[in-house]
Write a structure and sequence with these properties.
- By secondary structure, the chain is an alpha/beta fold.
- 29% of the residues lie in helices and 20% in strands.
- α2 links the parallel β2 and β3.
- The radius of gyration is 28 Å and the shape is globular.
Length: 429
């Protein structure tokens, strides 16, 4: 490279601009600036979201665009021209991406960018461009980028490892401890991988964790030795920590200057008393963050190969608590109305009273041959699936010694069976 006078341009050998050791990682402020993307296929589609999120004025030039790219243009997120690339298309651009399926066209785009001093990514051959797109991860207000000299598989693998380390707390990215307060975190249906990213991040910053019995125990094993763990288990028809005591533990911890995570199974607000805990904290002047979780009512049937809805089969699904019997004075459920529905019923905490629930539905008019599936310990390696119908399910549950936690799915979709698909998903954990 040589320094040119005012009448000359910079001359940079394109072939060496993206060599392994010469990349200079930098963050570009593209807000309000023109970015030209040539190509509208899936390669372009993967890059457009981040450019739009960065506030760039993105102009796409392509012969044909994917439906997603067309949708972004229709929504006003990008501008789109359906035509061939031609010289001069990079005028006014600050950044460019060449991602057509024609190497000669991509080379011409890079050459124009070189003449106009516009950094350009060549998607089909990173080493032939003047810029390389890093594998990126966003975490708690930070962007982490990894370059591997155009080896996209390697950079993506390292990026993913860094992100997982941040999420799990193996790498601490916070200079200051979390502020005192409470986070109500949904831990998901059981598999520790199914907690949300935000939930795992807050758990890694906790001083105190108040954990339910159904919260994934593997998550507790990841906590540092300084973290106080309070067992708030509610064993069905057995020992249980009173709700008032749980509320007080949250309040006392926060007022002692600690960050307290209330780790619950599923979602805090789906039969989890999460809102009661929020009310108690707010009344005591304790700040609360609510992190939704993946509810077992949907995810556990899914893990067993059962969709709670399916086109042409069911237009509704209802999630019902089995905490009290149908004839109990505290019951708020209209079992007769549920029996008349044609869609899906998902019963939580229903195993102990399955005879009563099945009888109430049969009495209300649900056909005896209505398919029923019971899933015990869903999403875990110990998951068990029992298939029956409404007339036989109670007896089968007793015969097979199904125990809590278990989900009961009633309706046409309960007859669905994904078979090997569900097994492959289970083995991937």
């Amino acid at each position: 490279m040589r320094v040119a006078d005012s009448a000359e341009r910079w001359e940079v050998p394109v072939s060496s601009a993206a060599d392994d050791e010469t990349n200079y990682l930098v963050g570009l402020n593209l807000r309000g600036r023109r970015v030209v993307v040539v190509g509208g296929g899936t390669v372009a589609q993967r890059r457009l979201g981040l450019l739009v999120a960065a506030g760039a004025h993105v102009h796409v030039i392509t012969r044909a665009a994917t439906p997603a790219v067309e949708g972004m243009a229709t929504a006003g997120q990008i501008t789109l021209e359906l035509r061939d690339y031609r010289a001069g298309d990079l005028d006014g651009a600050w950044y460019a991406i060449a991602c057509t399926d024609e190497p000669d066209t991509n080379a011409a785009i890079v050459a124009e960018a070189e003449r106009d001093r516009v950094f350009c990514v060549r998607a089909d051959n990173a080493r032939r461009g003047t810029a390389v797109t890093p594998a990126t991860a966003h975490y708690d207000g930070m962007t982490v980028g990894v370059l591997a000299g155009g080896d996209h598989r390697r950079s993506a693998a390292v990026r993913t490892a860094i992100r997982e380390a941040l999420q799990s707390g193996a790498v601490v990215a916070d200079a200051e401890p979390a502020r005192p307060g409470v986070a109500l975190v949904g831990g998901g249906p059981g598999d520790p991988d199914l907690i949300t990213v935000r939930g795992r991040r807050l758990l890694a910053r906790a001083d105190v964790v108040v954990a339910d019995r159904l919260a994934p125990p593997e998550l507790l094993a990841e906590l540092g030795p300084h973290v106080e763990v309070i067992d708030a288990a509610k064993i069905p028809y057995g020992r249980a920590m009173a709700q008032e005591a749980i509320n007080q533990a949250l309040i006392d911890g926060a007022k002692a200057g600690k960050f307290v995570v209330r780790l619950k199974g599923g979602d805090p607000y789906v039969f989890g008393r999460g809102y009661e805990e929020l009310e108690a904290c707010v009344a005591a002047g304790v700040p609360v963050t609510v992190v939704p979780g993946i509810t077992s009512a949907i995810s556990v049937p899914s893990a067993a190969g059962i969709p709670v809805t399916h086109r042409g089969v069911t237009h509704e699904f209802v999630v019902v608590s089995g905490h009290v019997a149908p004839d109990h004075p505290d019951s708020l459920t209209d079992w007769g109305a549920l029996a008349r529905l044609r869609g899906t019923l998902v019963l939580l905490m229903a195993v102990e009273r399955i005879e009563q629930f099945a009888a109430a539905l049969l009495e209300g008019g649900r056909p005896a041959q209505t398919p029923v599936t019971v899933i015990q310990e869903g999403t875990l390696r110990t998951q068990r699936v029992l298939r029956a119908d409404l007339e036989t399910v109670a007896a089968r549950v007793r015969e097979e010694q199904i125990r809590p936690p278990a989900i009961v799915v009633i309706g046409p979709v309960a007859a669905f069976e994904a078979g090997p698909v569900a097994e492959v998903a289970s083995d991937a954990r």
